[in-house]
Amino acid sequence: MNKQALQNELVELRATLDSELQRSDHHPDPFGHLLSRVAVQADPTEPEPLDDDLLDQLRERVAEQSIEHPRLAAVARQLLDLLSRMGV
Length: 88
Prior knowledge:
This protein is mainly alpha-helical. It has one domain (3-85). The chain is built from four helices and no strands. It starts with a helix and ends with a helix.
């Protein structure tokens, strides 16, 4: 998959993330805004580099929240997979 296709997938994933977070707006964000921060930092146009500690925190939170919040956990897993394919 080329770089542009990965960037397009990241944009789509961010839209899905925003939608899922709005759906669960009446509940606190179970990922503590980790997903949003990782999605923003993963964007190659962002000047802030991606923080490895942030990725580790997200991986841990996915494991903790996968049963109670399966849809958000699925988006998180997709984001982690995309970052892996981007070489992050």
